[in-house]
UniProtKB/TrEMBL annotation:
Signal sequence residues: 1-27
Organism: Candidatus Mycosynbacter amalyticus
InterPro entries, A to Z: AB_hydrolase_fold, Lipase_secreted
Top-level taxon of origin: Bacteria
GO molecular function: triacylglycerol lipase activity
This protein's name: Lipase
Swiss-Prot/TrEMBL GO biological process terms: lipid catabolic process
Keyword line: Signal
Length: 422
C-alpha cells in the first residue's frame, strides 16, 4: 500500500514539474527538446502494466480462428465476489472470451456474471456497464471481484449507486463487462461496444439457461460511453442478440467529443484529469493519434499508464495540457481531431434497442446538450426513446436521475413495451 501511495505522489510531483513549463510551451522552444531513446515505441510504453493474473494478462493463442464471444476460460470467484454483493449472490463466475478491437482485429475480453439465488432459467439480465474511467489493468470491476478491495484501484462507483446489488435482490442476473478491453482503452466506444456484446454472447454460452433471457443495459458517465457504443453497434456486430435486447438506460452522457473539448479540457478544470485519460485511452486503440504527439508527450506517456479513477480525477488542473504535448498547432481543430470526433461520436448509427437517456440539468462538465442531441438523433432514426433532465450536476444527477432510469429498465426486463416520447 505504501508503495502505491508513493507512486501516486511521484506522478503528481512530476506533473507539477512539467506543468510549470509545459503550459508555456509555445513561449519556451526548449521545452520539447526532450528526445526519446532510439527505437522508443510510445504505443508500447503507454500500455498498462500486467496485473500478475494470467486470466486478465495472457493473450490466448489462436484468437483469429475463434468467433466473437467464444469462451476461452471460466473461473468461479464466488469468494471474494459474494462479499461485494453482501452475500446476496448465489454464485459469481468470470468468463474470458474472444472479442474484437477498434480496428476489427481479434482481441479478448473479460466479464463477471453474478447469479441470484434459485433457478436462473430465463431470468432477466442487467448488463451493468460501470464507469471504469481508468487506465490501469487492476482498475476493472472483475479484478476487484477476484482479488478484493483496494482503495487505490477499486472505484467507489463499482458499488455506489448499488445498481448491481439491486438487480440481484430483484432476482436478476447481473453481467459486469470489463468494457475497456485488455489495453484499458478508456472512452473508446467501439472497443466498449464489442466487449459488452461479446460478454453477452459468452454469458449465454457459459449459462445456457440464459440463452433466451431478456437483457437490458445501463451505464453512467464513462459507463454511458460504453452503453452508447454497444447499443449503436448491436445491429451490425451482434444482430442475433436483437430479439432479447429490451433497452439501454444511460445517463451523464459524454457522447460528443466536440462538446467535451470545451467543457472538460481547459487548464483550470478539475475534470481535465479524466479528459486527458480519455484521450490517452482512445490512443491505445488508435495509435495514429500518436503521430501528432511531440517529444515531451512521448517522454511523459508512461506516467499515466496505470492510473485508476481516483488518482486521475485528483490530478485535475495538474494534468499536462493536451496542447503542450501536441506537435499539431491548434490540435482540437485539426483534421486528426475531426477524425477522432467522428469515431467517438458514432453519428447516424441507430440503437438496436429502445433508449432512456438522462442528464443533470445543471451539468457543466458533461452538458445536457449531448443527451438532448442523442435523443433527437435516435428519434430521427426511429428508436423508441425517452429523455429526462434530472436536478443537479454530474454527481447529484447520478442519484436523482437513477430511480427513473431503473424503473424504466425494470419494466423492459419484465416484458413491458417501451414507451415512445419522440
Amino acid at each position: 500500500m505504501r508503495a502505491k501511495i508513493s507512486g501516486v505522489i511521484v506522478v503528481i510531483a512530476v506533473l507539477l514539474l512539467i506543468a510549470t513549463t509545459a503550459g508555456r510551451a509555445s513561449a519556451l522552444p526548449g521545452v520539447d527538446d526532450v528526445v526519446p531513446a532510439p527505437n522508443y515505441d510510445v504505443a508500447q510504453a503507454m500500455l498498462p502494466t500486467p496485473t500478475g493474473d494470467p486470466f486478465f494478462d495472457r493473450t490466448p493463442p489462436g484468437l483469429a480462428s475463434m468467433k466473437p464471444g467464444q469462451v476461452i476460460a471460466i473461473r468461479d470467484v464466488s469468494w471474494p465476489g459474494k462479499v461485494f454483493t453482501l452475500w446476496q449472490a448465489q454464485r459469481v463466475v468470470q468468463v474470458k472470451f474472444r472479442s474484437t478491437d477498434a480496428k476489427g482485429r481479434p482481441s479478448y475480453g473479460t466479464a463477471t456474471i453474478i447469479m441470484p439465488p434459485g433457478d436462473i432459467t430465463n431470468r432477466p439480465v442487467l448488463v451493468n456497464n460501470l464507469p471504469i474511467d481508468a487506465l490501469g489493468a487492476k482498475c476493472t470491476p472483475s479484478y476487484a471481484l477476484a482479488h478484493g478491495y483496494d482503495p487505490l484501484t477499486t472505484s467507489a462507483t463499482d458499488y455506489v449507486p448499488p445498481t448491481t446489488l439491486l438487480a440481484i435482490k430483484r432476482g436478476y442476473v447481473a453481467l459486469l463487462p470489463d468494457h475497456q478491453g485488455p489495453k484499458m482503452a478508456y472512452a473508446e466506444p467501439v472497443v466498449a461496444g464489442h466487449m459488452i456484446l461479446d460478454a453477452v454472447r459468452a454469458m449465454r454460452s457459459v449459462e445456457p439457461a440464459l440463452a433466451e433471457s431478456r437483457f437490458g443495459m445501463t451505464g453512467y458517465s464513462g459507463g454511458a460511453i460504453a452503453t452508447n457504443g454497444a447499443a449503436k453497434l448491436l445491429p451490425e456486430y451482434a444482430p442475433e442478440l436483437a430479439r432479447q435486447a429490451v433497452g439501454a438506460a444511460l445517463g451523464g452522457t459524454p457522447v460528443d467529443a466536440r462538446v467535451l473539448v470545451g467543457s472538460m479540457s481547459p487548464w483550470y478544470n478539475w475534470a481535465k484529469g479524466l479528459f486527458v485519460a480519455g484521450v490517452y485511452g482512445i490512443s491505445r486503440e488508435n495509435p495514429e493519434i500518436l503521430d501528432g504527439v511531440n517529444n515531451l508527450g512521448k517522454w511523459a506517456a508512461p506516467i499515466f499508464r496505470d492510473l485508476c479513477t481516483v488518482p486521475a480525477a485528483m490530478l485535475g488542473p495538474l494534468t499536462i495540457p493536451v496542447e503542450a504535448v501536441s506537435a499539431i498547432p491548434d490540435p482540437f481543430r485539426s483534421p486528426l481531431a475531426q477524425k477522432i470526433y467522428r469515431h467517438f461520436n458514432m453519428p447516424g448509427k441507430r440503437y438496436g434497442m429502445p433508449m432512456y437517456v438522462y442528464n443533470g440539468a445543471q451539468e457543466f462538465w458533461i452538458p445536457a446538450i449531448m443527451a438532448q442531441h442523442l435523443y433527437a438523433e435516435q428519434c430521427r432514426l426511429g428508436v423508441r426513446a425517452v429523455l429526462r433532465l434530472a436536478p443537479g450536476e454530474h454527481a447529484i444527477a447520478a442519484v436523482t436521475g437513477l430511480p427513473g432510469a431503473l424503473q424504466w429498465l425494470d419494466a423492459r426486463l419484465q416484458g413491458v413495451s417501451a414507451p415512445n416520447e419522440c
